[in-house]
């Protein structure tokens, strides 16, 4: 069981959910696998039966496992998983084929974010617009420091999602927020840097301020497309760096 799947800041129940859920997504517990009994789980995870049972109930709600009174727990087929669940989305990002996964994340963003910003342009409140402008200014001040740029960039998009004011849409907001965070982090090493995206962010802000939903949607689509290019370039750069590193065998560099 991966230690990386046990965030220390989370509750014991959350740690159980992340430990088992991550192993299921990573195929360490393939579909159809009979889960260990409670005593074995408790010993392995170092938790009480009540904590374990609560964690397993959460995994049932995510449609990762089934639990029956006589046969115990079993991992469900991937076709039944709730792939829009934010936790599952995050675990997939740690384990799935990255080419397919990144493509699907951006397809999700292209469908939802332009529609969201078009609605937000007609509904955003004055305080929300002020927060959006403040997030943009923080991105400007961050320069090319990726760590300083990431937080206001993610907040910029979340403010737009929150400004829609649709209760059904809000159910998707956390999923989109996770997709945002993953793709933004993947783009941090873009060769051209982060500042290149500022003009597009500014177009989004200006269109929303004018209440122009059509222009806001067009600007957001351009921003998402540019982000996908950044991610592709950043991943290609990382791959080239890995290939250029000298290989060693038995402590001797290979020439």
**CATH classification, class level of the largest domain:** Mainly Alpha
Largest sheet: 2 strands, antiparallel
Structural class: mainly alpha
Give the SSE order as H and E letters.
HHHEEHHHHHHHEE
Question: What's the tally of helices?
Answer: 10
Strand order, largest beta sheet? 1-2
The fraction of residues in strands falls at: under 5%
Number of domains: 2
CATH architecture of the largest domain: Up-down Bundle
User: Spans of 5+ residues with little confidence (pLDDT < 50)?
Assistant: 251-255
Give me the CATH superfamily of the largest domain. GntR ligand-binding domain-like
> What's the overall geometry?
globular
Would you count the extended β strands for me? 4
User: Fraction of residues in helices?
Assistant: 55-70%
Mean pLDDT: 86
Describe what you observe in this structure.
The structure is a single chain. With 255 residues, the protein is mainly α. Helices cover 67% and strands 5% of the residues. The chain has 2 domains: 3-80, Orthogonal Bundle (Arc Repressor Mutant, subunit A); 97-237, GntR ligand-binding domain-like (Four Helix Bundle (Hemerythrin (Met), subunit A)). The protein has a two-stranded antiparallel sheet with strand order 1-2. It has a two-stranded antiparallel sheet with strand order 3-4. A hairpin with a 3-residue loop joins β1 (65-68) and β2. α5 (98-123) packs across α8. The longest helix is centred in the C-terminal third of the chain and has 32 residues, at 213-244. It starts with 11 loop residues before the first helix and ends with a strand.
